[in-house]
Amino acid sequence: MHSPIARFRSQIETYGTQPVPSGQRRSGSYDLFVIMANFLVNPASIFSAALGVASGLSFLVVVMTQVVSLFVAMVVLLVMARMGVDYGLTGQMACRTALGVRGGRWLTSPLRVICSVYWFAFQTLVSSLALTAILSEHFGVELPLTTVSLMFAVLQVSVALVGYRWLQGLFGRALPLKILCLMIIVIQLWDKQTASQNWFGLPSGNDWLLVMLWFNAIVGSMLTNVADSADLVRYVNSRRSLWVGAMSGALFGVALGAGLGAWMMTVVGGSADELYHNVLRMDSSLLMTVAMMVLIVMDNWTINVINLYTGGLSLSHTLEPVSRFTCTLLISIPAIWLSGMAEVIHSYLQTLEKASVLFAAIAGVLLVDYYCRNWRLNVQALYQVDGEYWYQHGFQLSALLIIALAALIGYSIPEAWPLPVIVMLISAVGFRLVLFSRQRKASAL
Q1: Domain residues of the chain, as ranges?
Q2: 3-class SS at 227?
Q3: Would residue 322 be called left, alpha or beta, if left means φ above 0 and alpha means ψ between -120 and 50 degrees?
Q4: What percent of the chain has pLDDT over 90?
Q5: CA neighbor of 250 nearest in space, from 229, 235, 234
């Protein structure tokens, strides 16, 4: 009879930077639908939608902006995620084809680790706003936001440490619970007097600038996943399952998350920071309190499991041959620490703008490189020194230069323009011209 510790160890995912064997890629479109739906019904999607309504946009405009933005970003992410389905690779390992073995290891991997830590802290703090509201309004317990956030953060690490199998199991149970809680919240507030009648108003004047800021923020936040988009699909059995499951799950999830946040803010009014306080002041019943608490806990747990899981894989790519389990444990330490800093919430849009420009530039190079290789990779060369992807001492300098130039241009583009899309196009066109010039020189020899 196995001890609990032995059973725990047997469940731990062993594939870090190594590809998942084809025989173990058995997940289908429904598995991916559940993961992506959970990924997009999260505290940030609810909070950002509420923030949009609080800024003056209508319910319809906020939801449509988030859905369209997500669709644009998902097309890019799913193209890059093919490497996970086709080869069982992590996204970070596949980045070596465009950036070089060392370029992928020392550029995109550390960047993604930083993003994972930041998103973990942001999601935890947003959820803690709700938990402090519940403790205050229903139980009369006043706790500092940072205290609640730190305690909540510590509880989220276990599933991510084990890996994909527990992640898949958690998500399968969490989605029905989330939908049930969402229905309860809507039913409880349905007949209340709404604070705003701005349900279907179209943008006018300066509202278009706000819409574009929201579009850029959402596309940019999603593109920070471009270097690890393959991580969650390397157990998926086909490209069809990838596109059907991931795209439908993502659209379903963002519609639910954004719809709930925008709808609650339209009903209760006030500031986005006070959203959960105002909801509970309007309906402080035990049923509403339980539904809110379960929804917030499940939302935060599922999204932050992904943040830690993908962050751990990224760090293991940098610190080879340190295991994925150890790397996940390592990044949980700064993630928990940052969860105690409330300033993370208020720097959301500024942080997104900087991160989105850089990752959009990386995305353009990765897409062109993958396309020019006819969607094929030499898996063995990804692990070789002096192999096909070694380039100049482990770096493809032309790709890194294009990324740097595109990012610098991006930081000077006006906010009213679709910033991540423009930067990605600049990067893609620039790198395609570099490859075309290289091919012409090779054919001339």
Answers
A1: 23-444
A2: helix
A3: beta
A4: 38
A5: 229
